[in-house]
Amino acid sequence: MKKYLMAFLLFANLCCDAQQAGKHVEIPPMPNGKVWKDTKGNPINAHGGGLLAHNGIYYWFGEIKKGKTWLVPDQQWEDYRVPAGGVSCYSSEDMHTWKYEGIALPSVTGNAKHDLDTSKVIERPKVIYNKRTKKFVMWMHVDANDYSYSQAGVAVSDKPAGPYTYLGSVKPNGQMSRDITLYKDDDEKAYIIYASESNKTMQVCLLSDDYLSPTTSYTRITSAINREAPAVFKYNKKYYLITSDCTGWSPNPATFAVADSLLGEWTQGGDPCTGTGAETTFQSQSTYVLPMPGQPNTFLFMADRWNKTNLEDSRYIWLPLQMVNGKPVIKWVDK
Ligand code: GAL
What spacing in Å lies between the alpha carbon of 79 and ligand 1's midpoint? Predict the structure, then answer.
């Protein structure tokens, strides 16, 4: 018995040393909806996020949700909030073992006029790389607690994991900008895609060559229903846009739209999710879609399973998205 205990203690000690030295440690597969941990064993805190693939490394950026959740009084919807915690970054070579890189863009304390003050909203950060300027550019949704500010914020860095320097925020072409994503096309042109006009339209706006400001080229995607949580990808020269309905932190069905050009006509396509749970996007909300390297028909669909009364405890749902007869199909898998 004593021998086994000694062996166990030695093993536990080795694991601990490996973690402290930042070496590879065995991490269980990422079970959807369970707490996911980084290489140090801490819960991954990167919500409403996106991935950047750069020089063989994946960087995961997301909202830091930390602290007590409270309900903003006198709102028309369940406006649950935590202090705006800035943007975190994790890195991985295998999309499975995630190393915490630190806070890529910190929030600001005690300056209520600043976009990044902890009293505000910093959501859905995404990062792309500009080959010409050699800068990493982050766009995000910045807002007031009641969502009346509705602006797109931009930050820049020389290194993928940051730190990022905040440059300010805009209403692109005078248009409201809430839930946002960022897309870089094969021709190096980049676009922001954001919920606008009180979520009645999604808009796509071409960015300047340095990716730091919106141009006047933009399009309004209208549909019968309000949309949020945009995620864009390209397949066989067509563009696909997955969005959610607008029910705050509560899940709802996803839909997709398809277009021949990002600024072109978008056609509504229906619900990409199928099987039990499809009607709530498997209790989650879209945030990003990443092409899987070496698997031309397969994408990674990233979504958030929000815990509205304890936002810090929100979870991640990553599912395979398969293109079948020109349509995206998302099915549940356990991990
Ligand atoms: C969601 C939106 C989230 C967050 C939330 C607040 O629908 O997609 O990013 O803003 O509303 O209620």
Answer: 9
Give how many domains the chain has, as a whole number.
Answer: 1
Domain that holds residue 175: 2-26+48-331
Q: Is 59 in the pocket of ligand 1 (CB under 6 A)?
A: no
In angstroms, the CA 90 to CA 47 distance is 12
Question: pLDDT (tens digit, 9 = 90+) per residue, 45-103?
Answer: 999 999 999 999 999 999 999 999 999 999 988 999 999 999 999 999 999 999 999 99
Which phi and psi (to 5°) does residue 10 adopt?
-65, -45
Predicted TM-score of the model (pTM): 0.92
Q: How far is the CA of 250 from the centre of ligand 1 (A)?
A: 9
Sheet containing strand 266-270, edge to edge, reads 228-235, 238-244, 254-259, 266-270
Residue type, 123: E
Closest CA to 233 of 146, 301, 163, 317: 301
